[in-house]
Design brief:
- 27% of the residues lie in helices and 24% in strands.
- With 161 residues, the protein is an alpha+beta fold.
- The chain has a single domain, classed as Gcn5-related N-acetyltransferase (GNAT) (Aminopeptidase, 3-Layer(aba) Sandwich), CATH 3.40.630.
- Helix 1 packs across helix 3.
- It binds coenzyme A (COA).
- Coenzyme A binds next to strand 4 and helix 6.
């Protein structure tokens, strides 16, 4: 299995696995109320917790790909993450994005991860799970060429449409 700790390059971003030295930026991102609002995840509560999440992140070692940290080339700062997660229970690979608010609205959430999934990883299908209120994320997914194809009513009750 090839391990892709480095993801795609775009004009403005590098993509690489998140490391413990990124803990401050990772904490700022994942504790931010606006960022976390529609993610369905609990906010990180401490820098120690951020370090723990980074150290325990196993996707690169177990499936060869994962969510990459997005490094703004102009500053070298970690400003978000994006990438692909193997959702085994759904038998699907999911694409996701998360950026600090000061970087929203600049088109930084691009189709690069989706293209990497199809072209390099040779995936046949990529999905995304998004809340209907998350208009910006839905728009990004549309710009990645994705189409709405179903609804999840709650975690235990699927209803396609
Ligand atoms: C989702 C996210 C990555 C989008 O990043 P972004 O940098 O704002 O993306 P873009 O610059 O491409 O802009 C998003 C698009 O949505 C549109 N948009 C944003 N907010 C909107 C709103 N409230 N109503 C309508 N359109 C909106 C923008 O105009 C833009 O469309 P356009 O390119 O056609 O002009 C960013 O909002 C984010 O990090 N959110 C928090 C984490 C999150 O919810 N992630 C997704 C979980 S599923």
């Amino acid at each position: 299995m090839h391990i892709y700790r480095t993801g795609p390059q775009t004009e403005r971003l590098e993509h690489r696995a998140i490391i413990p030295d990124d803990a401050d930026a990772f904490f700022a991102l994942n504790s931010h109320p606006e960022v976390m609002r529609f993610t369905g995840e609990a906010r990180l509560e401490s820098l120690d917790q951020a370090r723990e999440v980074i150290v325990n992140y196993e996707d690169f070692d177990t499936v060869g790909f994962g969510r990459w940290g997005c490094i703004l080339k102009a500053s070298g700062s970690l400003i978000g993450f994006c990438g692909l997660i193997d959702l085994r229970d759904l038998d699907a690979v999911d694409v996701g994005f998360r950026f600090l608010p000061e970087y929203w609205g600049q088109g930084l959430a691009s189709a690069a991860s989706v293209a990497f999934g199809f072209d390099i990883l040779r995936l046949e299908r990529i999905i995304a799970l998004v809340l209907p209120q998350n208009v910006a994320s839905i728009r990004v997914l549309e710009k990645c060429g994705m189409q709405a194809d179903g609804s999840i009513i709650d975690e235990d009750n699927w209803r396609g449409s």
